[in-house]
Every structure is written in C-alpha cells, then in structure tokens.
C-alpha cells in the first residue's frame, strides 16, 4: 500500500483505537480490515485465541465471526440468483428437498423472505450449537430436525433467526447438488483467494498454541454453519469487502455480476419508509447522510462487525476475542465510522406538536416477539434470558416515553403511529391489527403488546401466592389426617377424602415436574451426547406429560369443588379451603400452559 498521508492517518487511527480497545477492555487480540477505494489496510493486534505467545497475523490468525458468517451465506445465495438457478420471489419449497414446511399459511416462503428475516418462523435456540465438535450434524439434518413453527404469514413482520440463514445454506446445497461448505469453498473462497477461511467446525488453526486442542478450550460450536460457523482472517475478509465494493470483481476474478452486487445492497424490505430496513441479508443503517449495509456477529469470547458504505466505496471488518470482546470491537468500529460516516449530534431538539393521535391506545408493556410468538417450551427461556420489554407511556406535553432496561428515550409523533426520537436519528413505529394497536417496532426489532397478567413481575407474585395456597392442601391435609389419628378424632367424609386425593395429585404434579426436569438434566449431562439445552433428546417431550396429568387431576378437583358447593357437602371452612387450594393449582397450571410447559400447547 502506498504511504499517502491519508493512509498514514488511517493507520494511526486504527492503531490508536486498537491500543485503547486492548487496554480498556479484557480482550486478548483483535484484527481489522479497512477498504477505502483502492486502498486496503489490514492490521492485527494482541495475540491469537488462547495463545499468548502467538501474535495476531492478518494472513494466518483465525477468528470466529459468529453471525457475520451470514454475509458469506447471502453472498453465495446471490450467486445462485445471479446464475438464474433461483428466483428470489419464488417458493423455496420448489427447491428444498431436505425440509418440508407445513402449509400453515397460504403465502409461500421465498428466498426474499429468508434474506430479510420475514419468513414468519418463531425464534429457535435449540439445535444452533453444541459443546463438542464431534456432535455437529450435517446441515440437512440440522435444518430438518425441530423445524420452527410458522407463527405468522411471510413478509408480515421482521424476526431475526439463525434458522433463516441455515435454511438458505441448505437451499444452496439442494439447488447446486453440493454440500454448502463445498459450494462456498469453490465459488466464494477460491475466486477471492480466501485461502484461510473455512466453515469446518473447530479448525485446529483457531488455537495455535502448542499442545492445546480446540475442543479443550472452546465449548461453543455452530450446528448451523451458514448462520454462525465461519472461521476467517482479516486478510481474507478484506477481499470479500473489495468484492462487494468493486462491482463483484477482485484482481480480475469475478464473484458476482455488477447488477447482482447492486441488487444485494439495495433495500429489499422495510416496515416503513422512515425506518432502516434490510438489504439482501444485510441490515441498513443510516448515519447522517451515509447509508451502511452491515452485519454484526458474536459467539462466546468473540465479537465481530462487517460494514459497507457502497456509495462511498468504503468498508470495514473488525473482530476481537476475550471476555470483553464486544467492547473492544466496538471501540475500533466507532472510531472508523466516525471517520467514514460522522454523525452531527448538535441537531435541534424536536418538540411535540400536541398529544399523539391515539395516545390512550399506545401505553403499556411490549415484549419481544421472540417470546410472545414462541410455540415451544423455549418460550420461557426467551422470556427470562433474552431481551428487555419496552414500557410505553405518554407525557402530559405529548412526548412518548419508552423505558427499556434502565434506559429512557423520548419521541414525538410525526404521523399517526410513527414517532421520531427527540434527539437521535431513530424512528419508532406502532402497528395495528383490526383497529387495535398490537405491536411496536423499534427499528427492525418487533415487540408485541402484552396484558398486565402477562408481565413477569406480576406472574412471579401470582405464582408465589398460588404455590403457598396450593401447598397448604398438599402438606396440610396429610398433616391433619395424622393429627386426627393421633387424637382419635372423627375422619372426614369419604367424598372429602377422594376430593383431596384428586386435588393433592394435581398440586403434586408441579413439584414432581420440577424433580423430573432436574433428573433429566443430570442424566443427560452424564450421557455421551449434546447437552439438554443444545439438543434435547427425542424423548424429552415425555417430560411434559407429568404436569399435563397434574393439570387433568386439577380439572377433576374443580369438579369436586363445584359439587361440594352445590350439595353443601363438608363444612364451610373445608369447602373454602379446598376451593382455595384448587384455585391455586389452577393458576399454577395456567402459568405452565402460558409458558408452553404442558404437553398440549396452545402456542
């Protein structure tokens, strides 16, 4: 690279940012690739992963890039479009042989839907990764096992999933007759001379320290390689950046036609004209007057960013490893974006022009559709571990206030159900169905409005009260029997005894379910196979029969309670207590059903 003043400035900027990143964050190493027109800069800092004596080398040191793997996958998908093997708006079912979709909705799923994360699948965590590379499955098996439920018509709402990219990888394989990894190696890596990039699980080069095996220090291995399985170097990714910024050609080798590159970078989907949407597999981001198409990625111990400014002929790739890899990566990304796409933060503060048109309908809590639209037992995992809900209220002066995870933002309405941030370049959109406000879209993040009883905090207190009430029967009735026998008191009526046995069985189903879950988790952990969270065994669904039988017993107990009141059986105190115990059990089973923890699920 010629040592021009501008390039030297860029090198200095990257060096300084990388030094700050490694000093201020717990990160062991990072690597950077920057393309600016004809100029290319690649740099490495720190040491290779778990290899403190091996410096980062831009041509050799492998990094895991997580979801930035999808950039390669969507590039390969555009290749088969460019070669007229697939039409983006045609049903992918016409080409897929490994997977059959249920015909839940009339509209078919297309490659365009997959590339814009709008196919209508629920989010799925299981099957995405394994702790040991020997359990990584062939892609066809991975995408055809536990196929996500179709929860909405395609094209209706964005919902980011790994499955969309994994399925695209299988589509490439079924269309071309090659394994996904083989097609990418032959059609992407070889033409671009990306000789050190691979989708192989756990390549030994990832940990170059002598005597250290990858499986000994890495416990996350992608089971959906097209979505998160790429290992690469900054030198290789610099060539991918160049291909995207130079009309599909690098050093005379053509990867895509110029038309296909333009197609890949244009907007394919947006929920509203004021909101940044999706290019072909890449996210749009507006920064001042600049438009980026980008993708981030992260797996345990690694964080990555891939960004293009197509109109400016510039692009960047940054990846770091370490406990605070995300912060280190972002330090360098922010410095580069401030150079290539600076944002003027001194803009005038917007003021509301009266109360929002439908203010009374907007307030409430909105939860990510990853949770609300999940039809499996993973719903609870998403609800507890992923994403904070958004609370919405309208201030007296007409400002819309949103609170999420301790952060507060203010918005003004610019048209019905569309709001702009008071100070930042951001847009909030509310969506309605049948005249009722049902969803909030914060960019491409979709949230569904939930009722008061659906709030985790409310459900937590309700569960505590219900559990204590139910346990007064489960524990109190046997204790009362023992006390009467000790004192020689009169036994309760036989109808009361039968009723209590039925109600007690229902209540007991819940702690028994917990014990069975713990036992299964321990048993699975001791087996030679994937973990319960990564890939539940096929028989795991049988576990949910336990609470389902308890729910059936509780339904029977409701019948006993109703009969006791109608016939005035037992004493008044006995009827009241029995009814309270049954009500507590009913509430607990309602909560289990809400979180899809019964064998029969409603979604």
Overview of the molecule:
The chain is α+β, with helices and mostly antiparallel strands. It folds into three domains: 67-286 and 299-307, DD-peptidase/beta-lactamase superfamily (Beta-lactamase); 359-450, Lipocalin; 457-594. The protein has helices at 5-24, 69-82, 111-115, 139-144, 162-176, 180-192, 214-217, 225-228, 234-245, 258-265, 325-340, 359-362, 369-372, 378-385, 456-474, 476-487, 494-526, 545-567, 572-594; strands at residues 29-36, 39-48, 51-55, 63-64, 129-130, 221-222, 231-232, 249-250, 253-254, 283-287, 290-299, 302-309, 314-321, 364-368, 390-394, 400-404, 407-415, 418-421, 427-433, 436-442, 445-450. It has an eight-stranded antiparallel β-barrel. It has a seven-stranded antiparallel β-sheet with strand order 3-2-1-13-12-11-10, sandwiched between helices. Helix 2 runs parallel beside helix 5 (162-176) and helix 2 (69-82) packs across helix 10. The longest helix has 33 residues, at 494-526. The radius of gyration is 28 Å and the shape is globular. The termini are far apart. The model is unreliable at 1-6 (pLDDT under 50). Residues 15-328 form the Beta-lactamase-related domain. This is Beta-lactamase family protein. The chain crosses the membrane at residues 460-480, 501-526, 538-560, 572-592.
């Amino acid at each position: 690279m010629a040592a021009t003043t501008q390039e030297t400035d860029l090198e200095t900027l990257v060096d300084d940012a990388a030094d700050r990143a490694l000093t201020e964050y717990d990160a062991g190493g990072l690597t950077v690739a920057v393309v600016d027109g004809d100029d290319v800069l690649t740099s490495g800092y720190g040491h290779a992963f778990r290899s403190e004596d091996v410096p980062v080398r831009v041509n050799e040191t492998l990094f895991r890039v997580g979801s930035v793997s999808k950039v390669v996958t969507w590039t390969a998908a555009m290749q088969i479009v460019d070669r007229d093997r697939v039409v983006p708006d045609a049903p992918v079912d016409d080409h897929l042989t490994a997977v059959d979709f249920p015909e839940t909705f009339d509209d078919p799923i297309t490659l365009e839907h997959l590339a814009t994360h709008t196919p209508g699948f629920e989010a799925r965590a299981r099957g995405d990764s394994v702790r040991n590379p020997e359990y990584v499955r062939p892609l066809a098996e991975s995408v055809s096992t536990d196929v996500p439920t179709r929860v909405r018509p395609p094209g209706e709402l964005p919902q980011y999933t790994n499955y969309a990219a994994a399925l695209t990888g299988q589509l490439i394989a079924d269309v071309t007759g090659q394994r996904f990894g083989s097609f990418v190696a032959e059609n992407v890596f070889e033409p671009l001379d990306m000789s050190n990039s691979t989708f192989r699980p756990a390549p030994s080069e990832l940990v170059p320290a002598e005597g250290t095996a990858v499986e000994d220090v890495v416990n996350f291995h992608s089971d959906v390689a097209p979505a998160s399985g790429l290992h690469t170097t900054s030198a290789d990714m610099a060539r991918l950046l160049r291909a995207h910024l130079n009309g599909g050609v690098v050093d005379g080798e053509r990867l895509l036609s110029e038309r296909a590159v333009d197609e890949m970078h244009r907007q394919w989907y947006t929920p509203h004209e004021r909101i940044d949407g999706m290019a072909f597999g890449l996210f749009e981001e507006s920064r001042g007057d600049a438009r980026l198409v980008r993708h981030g990625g992260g797996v345990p111990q690694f964080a990555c960013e891939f960004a293009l400014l197509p109109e400016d002929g510039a692009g960047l790739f940054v990846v770091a490893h370490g406990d605070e890899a995300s912060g280190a990566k972002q330090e360098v990304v922010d410095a580069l974006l401030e150079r290539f796409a600076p944002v003027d933060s001194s803009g005038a503060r917007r003021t509301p022009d009266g109360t929002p048109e439908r203010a009374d309908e907007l307030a409430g809590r909105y939860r990510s559709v990853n949770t609300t639209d999940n039809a499996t037992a993973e719903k609870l995992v998403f609800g507890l571990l992923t994403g904070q809900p958004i609370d919405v209220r309208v201030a007296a002066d007409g400002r819309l206030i949103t609170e999420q995870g301790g952060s507060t933002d203010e918005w003004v309405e610019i048209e019905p159900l569309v709001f702009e941030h008071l100070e930042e370049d951001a847009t909030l959109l509310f969506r309605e169905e049948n005249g009722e406000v049902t969803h909030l879209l914060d960019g491409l993040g979709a949230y569904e409005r939930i009722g008061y009883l659906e709030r985790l905090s409310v459900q937590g207190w309700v569960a505590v009260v219900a559990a204590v009430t139910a346990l007064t029967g489960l524990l109190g009735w046997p204790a009362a029997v023992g006390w009467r026998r000790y004192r020689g008191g009169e036994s309760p009526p036989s109808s009361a005894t039968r009723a209590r046995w039925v109600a007690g069985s229902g209540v007991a189903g819940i702690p028994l379910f917990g014990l069975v879950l713990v036992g299964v988790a321990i048993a699975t952990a001791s087996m030679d196979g994937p973990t319960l969270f990564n890939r539940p065994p096929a028989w795991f669904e049988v576990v949910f029969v336990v609470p389902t039988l308890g729910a059936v017993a509780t339904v029977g107990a409701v019948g006993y309670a109703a009969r006791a009141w109608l016939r005035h059986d037992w004493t008044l105190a006995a009827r009241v207590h029995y009814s309270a115990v049954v009500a507590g059990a009913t509430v607990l089973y309602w909560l289990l059903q809400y979180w899809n923890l019964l064998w029969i699920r409603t979604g």
